[in-house]
Amino acid sequence: ALPIFFGSVVLFLVLSKRVGGIHGREIFLSISKVLTASLVMGAVVWGSSHWIRSWAGVGHTGRLLDLALSIPLGVVVLYGMCTLLKVSELELATRSILGPVMRRFK
Predict the structure, then answer these.
(1) Which of 11, 34, 55, 57 lies at a 20 to 30 A Cα distance from 101?
(2) Which of 85, 81, 77 is nearest to 69 (CA)?
(3) Chain segment 26-37, per-residue pLDDT in tens
(4) H or E stretch including 100?
């Protein structure tokens, strides 16, 4: 993953120089917001998973309960954090995901 990251950074810099700028500050700000939201989501999901496993055990039922609760919780926390941090791409992603579903119900 590290070589891919550095390769992406080099390609970004080369493309930016050739094109004459590609809004690097806006991209960095957006990535920073999403990274912050992801770190908060990861911490919350880790905490909930740890709590559920200590309460329900690590057997089949405990694992199933962990998945059934931690995954939706993670989605809600990530969406909430992105909303709180005003991630501009959130509206586009929401429309892309929910658009086809909402059209079926019209």
Answers:
(1) 34
(2) 77
(3) 888 999 999 999
(4) helix 89-104
Which structure tokens are listed for 93?
A: 């992603």
* Cβ-proximal residues to 71 (8 Å cutoff; 6+ apart), any chain: 45
C-alpha dihedral sign at 41, 43, 48, 53: positive
Q: How many CB atoms lie within 10 A of CB 50?
A: 12
Cβ distance 36 to 85 under 8 Å?
yes
Amino acid at 51: W
Q: Count CA atoms within 13 Å of residue 33 on its CB side.
A: 18
Contact 89, 48 (CB under 8 A): no
Contact 48, 92 (CB under 8 A): no
Could you give the 3-state DSSP secondary structure of residue 84?
helix
